């Protein structure tokens, strides 16, 4: 099972392969927005994946289109609801500036 490390809290927990980052973070009690409930429509679950990006599922068109319409996006950006865990550990950085979208 891959482990997820959350910045800035530094908390680490494990989750099943194939679980979305959003579901895993919510199950662990992390405060992450998810206004559209995982439909790639709101962008509020945007986070940065600092390590382990290649292990996650590839971003599909709805995620690319949503990210392209947002500000503060970088090469490490993912929508937590769209990124599914692979077998490797990941480190994610929760962001507060995207929560108002
Ligand atoms: S929860 Fe809305 S885009 Fe992820």
UniProtKB/TrEMBL annotation:
Domain of life: Bacteria
Regions crossing the membrane: none
Keywords noted in UniProt: 2Fe-2S, Iron, Iron-sulfur, Metal-binding
Iron in keyword set: yes
BP GO annotations: P450-containing electron transport chain
InterPro entries from the UniProt entry: 2Fe-2S_ferredoxin-like_sf, 2Fe-2S_ferredoxin-type, Adrenodoxin-like, Beta-grasp_dom_sf
Residue span(s) of domain 2Fe-2S ferredoxin-type: 2-98
Keyword check for Iron-sulfur: yes
A GO MF label: 2 iron, 2 sulfur cluster binding
Cofactor requirements of the protein: [2Fe-2S] cluster
Family label: Belongs to the adrenodoxin/putidaredoxin family.
Name of the protein in its database record: Putative (2Fe-2S) ferredoxin
Species name: Methyloglobulus morosus KoM1
């Amino acid at each position: 099972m891959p482990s997820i490390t959350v910045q800035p809290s530094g908390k680490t927990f494990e989750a099943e392969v194939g679980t979305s980052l959003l579901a895993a973070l919510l199950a662990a009690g992390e405060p992450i927005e998810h206004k559209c409930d995982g439909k790639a429509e709101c962008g509020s679950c945007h986070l940065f994946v600092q390590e382990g990006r290649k292990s996650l599922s590839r971003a599909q068109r709805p995620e690319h289109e949503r990210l392209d319409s947002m500000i503060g996006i970088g090469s490490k950006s993912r929508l937590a609801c769209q990124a599914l865990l692979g077998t490797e550990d990941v480190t994610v950085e929760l962001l507060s500036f995207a929560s108002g979208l």
